[in-house]
Amino acid sequence: MPSKSDQDLGDLAIQHGFCTQQRIEQCLAIQADLERSFRKPSSLDRVLFNKGYLSREQVESLQEEQGRRICLCPVCDTKINIVRIAVGKKVRCPKCDRRRIVPNGFFPEYLLTEEEIQATQTLSSMGGQGSRIAGFELLGELGRGAMGIVYKARQISLDRIVAVKILTGNILASPDDLKRFFREAKAGMKINHENVVRTIDVGEVNGLHWISMEFVEGETLKKMLERKKAVESMECLRYGIQVAKALEHAHGIGIIHRDIKPANLLLQKDGVVKVADLGLAKNLREAGTSGITADGMAIGTPNYMPPEQVVDARSVDHRADIYALGATLHHALTGEVPFASKNVLEIASRVLNEDLPSPRDIVETVPDSLCMVVERMTLKDPRDRYDQMSEVLSALEAIRAELG
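The structure corresponding to this sequence follows.
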């Protein structure tokens, strides 16, 4: 049953003509599904906003009229009303008795600690050419995503060019999450493979955690697909085989990527493919939850996530990487993003309930043998996929030999 406050907000939205009864009922059902699946509170105004049924101005108007704006305690997920509390003021959680700070921004999900505020301020002051952090001179931004911002940088002590990722997804991390991050980062530093971007070092400064990596000249597969839309089957096989080799090596030493997608595959000018974020891709807020937050906001890229990761990211094993690589190859072959939608809730629903079409249904020239491999890699039940990445690699290499 929805809470009275959510029912009242829905009634207000209908009275003002902002939303229909049908859409309110639809979003109440979505809210219930999200809370049941992710075991974490949500609010109706967030779901309505994320579905595109309410504008920011309409949400703020309803919040003001109702006198209710919800933020969660990061320790116990208790709902706390912050509508009359100024940004930067401290709030005491009525359940766990911890004091937290009201953050800035529209729809902040969690209250912050003083350390997290400092980290946010440090991040906002960075980014200009010549900025420095932890012994690195930032030379320019290379890209950004849900997990962080990547800069081209000069390591001052060794006068060499590297890539530095400043993690933004960890600002709300718990101590346990941070321990897990450093453990996984150190594991990633042990990977030595020609198809993996080498992790050099990790550290922390003013509450921000960073990773330094080798700098790769080239572009991501995502950028290339934006330019070319799709690639020929043999070219796709070259990419897929190299990524499969990298993942086979990683799985062999107990490391799962969890976020294989075109944006994490770097294409060097000499044809070598490098997998980025191997061993580091798990978002710190994602630990123990899912790829979608309880209010329907995305963590990571759900288009390429297997169904089990959308529901519970902690439960995934190496077969999640098999699915994600299959979805990435599907995109490369067809030029179409899997389950494309502007709404993350719709993407998640389609990942859970719909099958990807055969690549050949979209591009007739894709060989049957390659279609069969990609289709098996992207089956909903992980037990129906290839059992090991080595099997995927063998299948792709056999197709390459078949095609000459």
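The first strand starts at residue 70 and ends at 72.
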